[in-house]
Known about the structure:
This protein is mainly beta. It has a single domain (2-119), classed as Class I glutamine amidotransferase (GATase) domain (Rossmann fold), CATH 3.40.50.880. It is built from 1 helix and 8 strands. The protein has one helix at residues 11-21, and strands at residues 2-3, 25-29, 33-38, 41-46, 50-54, 73-77, 82-84, 117-119. Strands 1-2-5-6-8 form a 5-stranded mixed sheet, covered by helices on one side. The protein has a 3-stranded antiparallel sheet with strand order 3-4-7, with no helix packed on it. A hairpin with a 2-residue loop joins strand 3 (33-38) and strand 4 (41-46). The longest helix is centred in the first third of the chain and has 11 residues, at 11-21.
Amino acid sequence: MDQHFLRRGRLGRMLPLMQSQGLQTGIGVEENSAAILLGHEVEIVGEGGALFVDLRDVGSDPNLGAFNLSGVRLTFLGDGDRLDVRNPPRSLRRRPSSQVPGSTRAPPDCTVARGSALPARRAR
């Protein structure tokens, strides 16, 4: 778990830490937000949202020398969104947009689209 995650670009430090510690999933929480863990489900509360990081299908090429990963899955979670961490993104339940106060845009400087699960770029 890391805070002020998106605005401060902390994905770059989270991925190597997760890999070195053998962690398969992680959550980066933005300012003014919280991740509430209820059993295997996480619910996001607050205006900034969170990024769920899934390394279960990740690969790495030791021939490249530098730190590299492929197959990383990222899912942006907004206020009221819920996710079963055992089965993302199929378990994602969005809060209906009619119930989300204010804008449903991603936080400033966020390049991950709301509600998408994106594979990371493959190392070349």
